[in-house]
Design brief:
The complex is a heterodimer of chains A (456) and B (108).
Chain A: E1 5-15, E2 52-53, H1 54-66, E3 70-71, E4 74-75, E5 78-81, E6 91-94, E7 101-112, E8 115-133, E9 137-141, E10 146-150, E11 157-167, H2 170-187, E12 199-208, E13 218-223, H3 226-245, E14 254-258, E15 263-266, E16 279-280, E17 287-288, H4 307-312, H5 318-329, H6 333-341, H7 345-355, H8 360-377, H9 389-400, H10 406-417, H11 424-430, H12 439-454
Parallel strand pairs in A: 13-14
Antiparallel strand pairs in A: 1-11, 1-12, 3-7, 4-17, 5-6, 5-16, 7-8, 8-11, 9-10, 12-13, 14-15
Helix pairs in contact in A: 2-3, 5-6, 6-7, 7-8, 7-9, 9-10
Chain B: H1 5-15, H2 22-36, E1 60-61, H3 71-76, E2 81-82, E3 85-88
The chains are: A alpha+beta (456), B alpha+beta (108).
């Protein structure tokens, strides 16, 4: 039986973190009364025109730079036409011909065989990043056979990040998306919270035999978490392999992931190949971006976006932050991954290190094994931790000064976790956990034990 | 060169226009012929112009909230509403196929 090579590509839509929408001044906010964040333009009332939001352009440039893309100094807007109740204009304004950024790359890491100590770095090519409008939301009311439409989301700015089919399985896709999520959150260009629909991922999956042309691909949608992303892709790969091995064919269709059943099913309303009749957006001139060399002399500052200025102000990306943590504190690379993977954990670690004499290499164990496992057990975020960095540092100092044993320290931590406001020293005294340092006292105790045994 | 019935049906399906009768189709035909005159110009090596606005400045707006909060006004236009939601059919209602419709195009 010839081996199968799965091929996975991703289309990721990230909602831009901005106050107002891409082409209008209505507010961007999750969970608001229906149709309260909608302007006349968003509702596609006649006579309204799109006006581009500067912040959205900056967000896309930042993201393009962080993903090693070439930023197109001239990019264009187009209309993509299709009919759906949550798209009042009957078209979406997007960038189909010349998007704002192209030809980038994203590096991500994977553990081999689930062992964190063996990490391998992979790269996925970024085909392009384009600015486009989000659509409204449809709520399907099957009992009354109708759809309720809320346009609050209509017109919110999106960055569509297209990843080339360089991945081969769910695990790779999940790792790539996780890294992209961290990058977006570090840049602040998107909060990228999947649960709130700020990051949506569609996967393109196909299989083929080595040396043969790529197989027919399916598109998998409706994936709500990174965990489900991996599951959906792996299921679809298996489904396609089984179908082909049983002599069947793969349809070029769109499928939805059913998280309850753990499988993909064909989606309704997606009949064959769509003809979107792309045309240039007649109401928007080309988007021109500048750099230090091409900066025009006499233009209003507010109307000019300088790519170099943005580049200079990019924050440290996750990969750089990890490297710095390893270099500065002597921790292992896999430790730096865990520190950055948990929101606020890196800062917590650095804060503890500042407040204690214990070496960072020892502190990291307490952070990653003890603190993190407590947080996970109780489903708490670092911000919600009942044990502050101050308290933990205090405890570690007692351990470092050999006033308590390691076992005792764990006991104290368990007590601190209750969040009753006691200091580590108070708990040590309460539970009599102090290490005896006095040589004479130790000799007396040992002698007493020996004497006790002699009597038996 | 006439526009085929297949293309006309495809256009009716995509744009939900109704060519209605021979006059409608003829008007489309004439519009295409008029635009085809562009082919008489040699455009080798010339970048296509896609907008007469191409030399204009694309105005950039500051990221301030200046609109919205007009639910009542927007819903006034809706034929049906449910608790401040617009109401739409459960899914797209596709245009019936050519064979199933009573359309002038069938005779062509």
């Amino acid at each position: 039986l010839a081996p199968w090579v799965p091929v996975v590509g991703l289309e990721i839509h990230a909602q831009i973190s901005s106050n107002s929408k891409l082409f209008s001044g209505s507010q961007v906010q999750f969970a608001a009364p229906p149709n309260s964040l909608v302007s006349f333009f968003d509702a596609s009332l006649p006579g309204t025109l799109p006006v581009l939001n500067r912040r959205c352009v900056e967000a896309a440039v930042m993201t393009g730079l962080a993903l090693n893309c070439s930023i197109n100094k001239k990019s264009l807007f187009d209309r993509k036409h299709y009919f759906y109740a949550d798209l009042p204009a009957g078209y979406q304004i997007t960038q189909q011909r010349v998007p704002i950024a192209v030809n980038g790359s994203l590096s991500y890491s994977l553990c081999i065989d689930n062992k964190m100590s063996q990490m391998v770095t992979k790269t996925v090519r970024i085909k392009q990043i384009q600015l486009e409008q989000d659509s409204g939301k449809s709520l399907h009311d099957d009992t009354r056979s109708q759809t309720l439409v809320d346009l609050n989301r209509a017109g919110v700015g999106l960055m569509e990040v297209v990843m080339e089919p360089d991945m081969c399985c769910g695990e790779e896709a999940a790792a790539a998306v996780r890294e992209l999520q961290l990058i977006l959150q570090t840049l602040g260009s998107s909060q990228a919270v999947m649960a709130e629909g700020q990051l949506r991922v569609d996967a393109n999956v196909s299989v083929h035999h080595p040396g043969e042309p790529y197989g027919v691909r399916t598109e998998v949608k409706n994936i709500n978490s990174i965990r489900f992303l991996a599951k959906a892709i792996d299921y679809e790969i298996q489904r396609q392999i089984e179908e082909l091995e049983n002599g069947g064919t793969i349809l070029n269709e769109t499928r939805a992931f059913d998280s309850k059943l753990g499988c993909t099913v064909p989606m309704r309303d997606k009949e064959g190949k769509q003809d979107y009749r792309f045309m240039p957006e007649p109401n928007l001139p080309p988007l021109i971006l500048y750099d230090a060399k091409s900066l025009p002399a006499n233009m209003n500052h507010q109307q000019v976006i300088n790519i170099d200025w943005i580049h200079e102000r990019l924050p440290d990306l996750p990969s750089v932050k990890r490297k710095k943590l390893v270099e500065q504190y002597g921790i292992l690379p896999e430790h730096s991954f865990t520190l950055l993977n948990e929101d606020g954990l890196g800062e917590f670690f650095e804060s503890v290190v500042k407040q204690t004499q214990m070496k960072p290499k020892k502190v990291i164990g307490w952070i990653l094994k003890d603190l993190l496992s407590y947080l996970k057990q109780h489903s708490l975020t670092v911000k919600e931790s009942p044990v502050s960095s101050f308290l933990l540092a205090d405890l570690l100092n007692l351990l470092e000064k050999k006033e308590i044993s390691s076992t005792a320290a764990k006991q104290v931590l368990a007590e601190l976790w209750k969040g009753e406001g006691k200091t580590p020293l108070e708990i040590v005294k309460e539970q009599k956990l102090e290490l005896l340092q006095d040589q004479k006292e130790l000799e007396q105790i040992c002698q007493a034990v020996i004497d006790g045994h002699e009597n038996e | 060169q006439r526009v085929s019935v297949e293309v006309l049906e495809h256009l009716e399906h995509l744009a939900l226009v109704d060519f209605r009768d021979a006059e409608g189709v003829e008007r489309l035909q004439k519009a295409i012929q008029f635009a085809d005159q562009l082919h008489e110009v040699n455009t080798d090596g010339v970048e296509p112009m896609d907008s007469v606005l191409e030399d204009r400045c694309l105005y950039l707006r500051e990221d301030d909230v200046t609109e919205g909060n007009c639910t009542k006004e927007l819903l006034e236009n809706a034929r049906e509403k449910v608790e401040e939601y617009f109401v739409a059919p459960p899914g797209n209602i596709p245009l019936p196929k050519l064979e199933e419709r009573e359309t002038f195009l069938q005779g062509s």
